[in-house]
Amino acid sequence: MRFLYIAVLLIVSQSWANAAPVRIKDLANVDGVRGNDLVGYGLVVGLNGSGDSLRNSPFTEEIMAGLLERLGVNVTDEAFRPKNVAAVIVTAALPPFARTGSQIDVNVAAIGDAKSLLGGTLVMTPLNAADGEIYAVAQGSVLASGAEASGAAASVVQGVPTTGTIPSGARVEREVAFDFSQMTNLRLALRNPDFTTATRVEAAINRKLGRGVAELIDSGTITVDASVLGRVNPARLMAQIETITVEPEAAARVVIDHKSGTIVMGEDVRISRVAVSQGNLTLRVREMPVVSQPNPFAPGETVVVPRTQAEITQEPGIGFAEVSGESSLSDVVAGLNALGIRPRDMIDILKAVHAAGALHAELIVN
């Protein structure tokens, strides 16, 4: 059996000489300015018979009974088995500086055996943060991106109908206590720590705001001392800093994704002079049994005589080919392509070259 593999080789330019300038706001985060994750447990109602089966999902019955009792409906000792409700987990991200009354998007996912949330409505659900406090309340119509249909002998599902979203479905009820205006020492955290990039960020800020304002701490942190500038609003100061452009630097990397056969190589990748040989062996075994039986009315019995045919085939391969150590990625790629190998085999060769110490880059295999 033969398998067809398709691989894509992407060339990512990381050379700072040719890299486009990037704003600091796209390279770094401000220490303390972050979102918070929220989670809640709620109930979706109004489903068209596609909800949880209460026998297999007793937690749905408990939350529904609690909800009805809070609304003044006594369901004690009542045998109700509706099929239009489903227990769900509701998640959301509270953005930084979110104020009371603002609205945020929420995601809804079924946790029982509901078949679909299409057409359902989420009942008022409190959303808690890691500290256990309620920061938002979610409610609204669920937009499910999928469909499910079934019959007596077959069923079909398109997408994931048991998950959905509610745009602006939660209202913020509590603010995170954080006074940005009182900060006098701002810290910038690079998303991809690198000493060269951090040094350039420090130099760019000092060129615009004055020497001594920014100071490099490590490969991922730059501090900005707002007190050097006198009485200044930290928010206005950040508005000036985040628009400064810097040419980022990154380490040489080769990223390999085995599942999709994707190879991503940076501009700074280098390969030392190395010889590569690649080929494949194919072992094929075929069973062709022969039935032997006696002539009509002759003594004897029918037997099966095994017959096996085995062969080993070796593809021509490339023999030994030399890949010269070049100064540019285009030459390295041209040298690998000149070997006449398949993209899937190129992944194995790059791993072997890295193991031999000839690939001068960080190898990341997913």
Give an account of the 3D structure:
- Keywords: Bacterial flagellum, Cell projection, Cilium, Flagellum, Periplasm, Signal.
- Assembles around the rod to form the L-ring and probably protects the motor/basal body from shearing forces during rotation.
- The chain is flat, with a radius of gyration of 32 Å.
- The protein has three domains: 21-32 and 179-246, 2-Layer Sandwich (Gyrase A, domain 2); 36-172, no CATH class; 254-365, no CATH class.
- It has five helices and 25 strands.
- It is 16% helix and 39% strand.
- The strands form eight sheets. It has a six-stranded antiparallel β-barrel. A four-stranded mixed beta sheet has the order 1-16-15-25, with helices on one face.
- With 366 residues, the protein is α+β, with helices and mostly antiparallel strands.
- It has helices at 58-70, 195-209, 234-241, 329-337, 343-355, and strands at residues 8-12, 22-23, 28-30, 36-45, 85-94, 103-110, 121-128, 134-141, 143-150, 155-172, 185-190, 214-218, 221-225, 245-246, 253-257, 262-266, 270-271, 274-277, 281-287, 290-292, 303-305, 308-314, 320-323, 359-360, 362-365.
Give the rounded overall mean pLDDT: 78
Q: Beta-strand percentage?
A: 35-45%
End-to-end span in angstroms? 26 Å
Largest sheet: 6 strands, antiparallel, barrel
Structural class: alpha+beta
The helix count comes to 5
Poorly predicted regions are 1-17
Number of domains: 3
